Amino acid sequence: MTESLTPELEAIVSAAAAAAPAFAATAPEHRARAIVAVADALEAAKPELVEIAMRETGLTEARLSGEVTRTAVQLRLFADTLVDGGYLDARIDYADDDFALGVRPDIRRVLLPLGPVINFSASNFPFAFSVMGGDSASILAAGCPLIVKAHSGHPELSDATARVAAEALAASGMPEGVFHLIHGREAGVAVLKDPRVQAGAFTGSIGVGRLLADIAASRPAPIPFFGELGSVNPVFITADAIAERAAEIASGYLTSVSGSAGQLCTKPGFAFIPEGGALPEAILEAASEFPEHRLLDPRIAKSYDERRSAVLGSPGVRAVIEGGIRFDEHGHGWATPTIVAVSLDDFRAGKEALVEESFGPLSILVETPEGTDLAALMPEFYEGNLTGTLHLSAAEATGTTANAAELRALVAALANQVGRVLFNGWSTGVAVTPAQQHGGPWPATTNDSSTSVGTAAITRFLRPVAYQNAPAALLPEALQDTNPLGVPQSIAAAGESREWGSRWR
Amino acid sequence: MTESLTPELEAIVSAAAAAAPAFAATAPEHRARAIVAVADALEAAKPELVEIAMRETGLTEARLSGEVTRTAVQLRLFADTLVDGGYLDARIDYADDDFALGVRPDIRRVLLPLGPVINFSASNFPFAFSVMGGDSASILAAGCPLIVKAHSGHPELSDATARVAAEALAASGMPEGVFHLIHGREAGVAVLKDPRVQAGAFTGSIGVGRLLADIAASRPAPIPFFGELGSVNPVFITADAIAERAAEIASGYLTSVSGSAGQLCTKPGFAFIPEGGALPEAILEAASEFPEHRLLDPRIAKSYDERRSAVLGSPGVRAVIEGGIRFDEHGHGWATPTIVAVSLDDFRAGKEALVEESFGPLSILVETPEGTDLAALMPEFYEGNLTGTLHLSAAEATGTTANAAELRALVAALANQVGRVLFNGWSTGVAVTPAQQHGGPWPATTNDSSTSVGTAAITRFLRPVAYQNAPAALLPEALQDTNPLGVPQSIAAAGESREWGSRWR
């Protein structure tokens, strides 16, 4: 059963499994305090953590410092979420002697933590999608012991973050074994295969994500696997929007493409614009202000360099901003943004070379002839994506212009293939809020039923259990009539069933 | 892409895919009316449908007639669910200039239908888990075009049910292509593999369920697959419960084991009782009243016969009620209940032969010595189960007896491995209500995040989409400030984020 684990991993997984019942039973306020303590400790350690992160990732101090704040805010939001208790989806059906199908027992349902979960962290967000990032926050908030697989791009930072977090959890009285950090893909795979591990989370490439998802699905007892993978985030910009504010759109686009050197899963990889418009020129004018930026690691830099050459070499592609990449003596690549334009016909002809994600500061303008059915382009060129964006004019936003039906069709086409549809904005900011949706159909994620950002992320690590005619003394607190935790409870009273469907005849 | 589909299947899948946008856009009241019309039509056709079902399945008229009612009630409940709109989990975060992480845009999130879904129907519930059963009801209520794969055990009934449903849907003005019936496992597999199909549902054996789940997971674009598979539903009965009401427990147990000839996924396959108690004798006394019952089909009968012999032949197993099975000239098997008893030691020694599901009216009493750690038996003997049951005395239900801690540990152990924990009842009734949970960890289901009975089942066929800064004219109705559908909306106001986590320091 556990033959493939090294003694060290065996100790970690058995500690996590042993901690699961006690961690699940921690009082919500207690668990919340521990999570807030982690947030506070990370912010207190910000200077030393950011210094390591800068060295290991090449990301800027401003970006990394903001990311620590985001990570801390995220942890605090999950602390509030777990104490609020709405995520438990507590449902109570009172017993009903007059039930439409005979006597109905008292049934009460709540979500319980799954048990130990492994989280594979990301390269491009060394804090917010890493050791104590959003996935870890939602796993701990759900009450599941957490095993994090560090990303090989920032091992020292991972260790330092783990030390800070482990101390805060222990000092807050959390059970031993609720949090471990491991290194190495082989170790991660071995843990993912272990029967005591109940779910996996991942942020990274399509290739690795699919590999891990397949492992999770093919275990003797399959487990859920939540992978957030690749995305090219198409943008559609109308002629009227360009006429209204070409300079603003150009500047927003360039900022979004070049931020964090384009190494964001929400970078706009494609913008569909009407041919012959003023946008390319506006982009060229806005371009002077972007300094070169180091890519995360030499492997990513090399792959970006190859991708960029392939795009520039595809028939009909012309550089709007050529940009470039140079390599330093350590093999690190330093890039400035590359923006190219191509006609829809040439894009179609070069689809295979062009449509893939370029992980770096490159984006492709596709110039569409008048009368193009924009809604049809989504299924023609793309699979699932994290985001899809529409820029329209003030008049078009009213839904009363001559092209209103086309715009509605385009919005529906985007909603059908992405997790988040944006209007007049840029996809690279992902607010951490209750309504956020960071997901999307394959290959944006391996599992499109949930989000990896925002409070809805917590439900990934829970499973529903119903209690039938349970004595009050043996019910979970969230399901008790006295509701000692004060959580929202949906109640189905007796006598309702006779009316079911009658309103809709 | 669709090379493996026959022309007939290609026509069905493309009709379903073409119908998806229009069906998703039907007004909730309109879709609800259509679903209620299906319910009404099924009840109107009850006499002819039950007659076919009796012939094809061998189930009794009373059972089948009740099942039609259940199926109709279930459809009406989903009609109410979809109009209520709470299942949409509509969330609105208002824009917030003072947000903790910088300006927050307006973000609104709702669940949208997945698109075409295939539902593989069950043998043992020719109505309630078949053509218009619970899975079909939740798929249609969610707004997803439905392709049902008929079970080979009742093809004529499936065709008759499909005619009734298709007429009602068409007469209610639903788009063409929203419902199709297909026959044959090969056809089902071909449809499950088709890239236009977005999810699968299944009720049946572990073997077939796993096969289909693996197909869904290994597609180029994997899709969710919700299989409800096998379960043995362990029961634990305390000494005090037996002392209090042995005859009542004996009679309830026998009724639950023998109902529908034991061919229910919630049949109690094992009851753990204290050794030396009065229950076996009480069961023997209660046993005279059970007439023989035809098993669903010759294949199931043969496999039950073999299973029963293996159980009876396992060392240390003694018959409490021997029961039996005889075969008629058509190969049909007619069974009466078999109840056996075995000591915990012999159960442990014979685990491999004994612990598997017996699909038919057989159940095993396991006699445990005083002082047995009951909570430890669940992980020792069982994987995931649909249900786990505890019978206790009135005094034990107060949680104040000397064994209260052991009982709590047992309830926690059950909750950890099953979808529904019952007290002083029998698992074979599954009420169709908002709080119901019909699921459980592998191999009870392929996917433990959801239920296949009750209104929570609808979320299986939906995916979340967020709209960022969307103009009102382009927002789905459920997310509009004017809330024309009157659905529940969770609202996050501006200004809240500064306080996050502050209460839990």
Can you give me a brief rundown of this structure?
2 copies of one chain form a homodimer. By secondary structure, chain A is an alpha/beta fold. The first copy, chain A, is 39% helix and 18% strand.
Notes on the protein architecture:
- The structure is a homodimer of 505-residue chains.
- With 505 residues, chain A is of the alpha/beta class.
- Chain A folds into 2 domains: 10-86 and 113-229 and 450-462, 3-Layer(aba) Sandwich (Aldehyde Dehydrogenase, Chain A, domain 1); 235-423, 3-Layer(aba) Sandwich (Aldehyde Dehydrogenase, Chain A, domain 2), CATH 3.40.309.10.
- Chain A has helices spanning 7-24, 28-44, 46-57, 61-84, 134-142, 155-171, 185-193, 206-218, 239-258, 279-286, 298-313, 344-349, 351-354, 374-381, 404-417; strands at 90-93, 107-113, 117-120, 146-149, 179-182, 199-203, 225-228, 235-237, 270-274, 293-294, 318-321, 324-327, 333-336, 338-343, 362-368, 385-391, 418-423, 462-468, 489-492.
- In chain A, the strands form 4 sheets. Chain A has a 7-stranded mixed sheet, sandwiched between helices.
- In chain A, strand 4, helix 6 and strand 5 (179-182) form a beta-alpha-beta unit.
- In chain A, helix 2 crosses helix 6 (155-171) and helix 14 (374-381) runs parallel beside helix 15.
- In chain A, 58% of the residues are buried.
- The mean pLDDT of chain A is 96.
- Chains A and B meet through helix 2, helix 4, strand 1, strand 2 and helix 8 of A and helix 2, helix 4, strand 1, strand 2 and helix 8 of B.
- Strand 18 (462-468) of chain A pairs parallel with strand 17 of chain B.
